[in-house]
TrEMBL record, chains A, B:
It comes from Streptomyces pratisoli. This is ATP-grasp ribosomal peptide maturase.
Length: 312, 312
């Protein structure tokens, strides 16, 4: 049984997992959908009630029936490397590739349709509530009046993007930012704005969930630091235990969202409460593994691999 | 309980359903996501474990808690009508709107994540097989050799697009086309190509499924006509009964795909077999209703409406 990894050529996180799969002797195929068609080729036949599909890349041929699992890491856009790329060629190639993969009986980390919904931050907040996490009061609004009321009620608030940083080259950093008292909110009418109560935090917590295995890491915050992703705090990520209550909430969240992998970000306050900030279904784990020594790549490889008796 | 309809301004099919909802006295809100923010506004609050959302459009305000159902008809791209549209504004608005809607407890026709997978034609074929439909032998390939073998085996074949017609203005028609004997398939390597055994057909059949209610219509084919969507056959759509075997397969397909609405296209051959061609989760029904008198708009309105005792 073979593992299929969808990712671009330059991906050290994928390399970490591939090394672990090699250690286990598990066959794998690495494919960048951008190389299809061209470097890679595919064929899917639907005949007499049966389905046969295969994929060829780097001189290797893998049949859909021989696939154990698919890891969607950082796949390129289908047909992006074609000699004459076009929107239509991308659409046709995407349908051909993903349609064939959806037809296979495999486990996904994570299924693209599940991932699309899981990326939606407002939905993350309601799911986090339902799963039992502490969630900072949040509003997403295009009503300046609602933004003003929220600021008046919670006083110390931050603003962040709902969908991530703006696209474009060079990339624009968009850290979570505290909102100064007396801010004019009339611009809120021009675009949905996400405001959240500011959580004075002692530490950032990153919890990486791989199936049912959970890896939590903690980094002490620099005084007054708002967004742990930007700036050096002088502290390193250290492993820590996952409280039972959090473990239960993580498993509920993963199950409700249909996720096999996710990276959760929390803010730890002075009273040891872990406040849910977001859940990134495709979050990086390499930097955590390097600093903490937690065997996350090994856990990903184990989840993707066939059960031990099959792989021997 | 209110019905939310996501569609663009010009949509006569939506108008047909809206008339039926008015007849039933069911409150509804019609929103084009392209008008948000601007003509329309939204606000979602996630506070103390509760979620409150509301949407304002055309001077009406609807709370997420009061929503019964959401019909995704032909929604415009979020923020497309903004004074300064941008990819980022579209992404932010999409997250804010759909994130809020995903957080509501409603029935969807169809949920956008379900719809995305259901559009994938190769996946439709394997689902059709699993559901028990007759499916013409089909291959989707980038291997010229495989295309040649398929043509040699099935002789009379057609070529069609996997993803629909190429984007662009003016639109390009791309009818299903018979492949001439001796065709050179070397170009298959440049883009995935969908080849299918040609089914000599007596009639086209369109089956519209609205929840568990099925409406089948039949149109006699013109002699030698390949693609029923193009050209006048001189025949009209006539209603016909749905065989039990087909009804079971449709319900299995809808259930496996998670769909509440779908339009199935079949080719009826000389032996009365209905060959599955495709399933369009957002397929039109207005032209069928106008020619056959089948109450499809009424069925959609009924599915979207609260149960009778609630709406009184």
């Amino acid at each position: 049984m073979t593992v299929l990894i969808l990712t671009s050529r330059q991906d050290v996180t994928a390399d970490m997992v591939i090394a672990k799969l090699h250690d286990r002797g598990v066959p794998l195929v690495r494919l960048d959908p951008a190389d299809l068609p061209g470097e890679a080729a595919l064929s899917a036949e639907y005949v007499q009630g049966d389905f046969y599909g295969h994929l060829s890349t780097d001189g290797r041929l893998v049949s859909m029936g021989a696939l154990r699992s698919i890891w969607v890491r950082r796949p390129g856009e289908p047909a992006a490397h074609a000699p004459e790329p076009s929107k239509w060629l991308t659409a046709e190639t995407e349908q051909a590739l993903y349609g064939m993969l959806y037809s296979a009986t495999v486990r996904w980390m994570n299924h693209p349709c599940v991932a699309a919904q899981a990326r939606c931050k407002p939905w993350q907040l309601s799911l986090a509530h339902r799963s039992g996490f502490a969630v900072p009061p949040t509003v997403i609004t295009t009503f300046p009046r609602v933004a003003r009321q929220f600021a008046a009620q919670y006083r110390d608030i931050v603003v962040k993007s709902a969908s991530g940083p703006p696209p474009g080259d060079p990339p624009v950093a968009l850290p979570t930012t505290r909102v100064a008292p007396g801010t004019d909110f009339s611009g809120v009418a021009a675009g949905p704005t996400l405001l959240q109560q500011y959580i004075p935090k002692r530490a950032d917590i990153r919890l990486t969930a791989v199936g049912t295995r959970l890896f939590a890491a903690r980094k002490v915050s620099a005084s007054g630091q708002v967004d742990g992703r930007y700036g050096d705090t002088g502290h390193a990520w250290k492993p820590l235990d996952v409280p039972d209550r959090i473990a239960r909430a993580v498993r509920d969240y993963m199950s409700l969202a249909g996720l096999a992998y996710a990276a959760f970000d929390f803010a730890e306050d002075e009273e040891d409460v872990w406040w849910f900030l977001e859940c990134n279904q495709g979050g990086q784990f390499g930097f955590i593994e390097l600093e903490t020594g937690q065997p996350i790549a090994e856990a990903v490889a184990a989840w993707l691999s066939p059960p031990a008796r099959e792989s021997s």
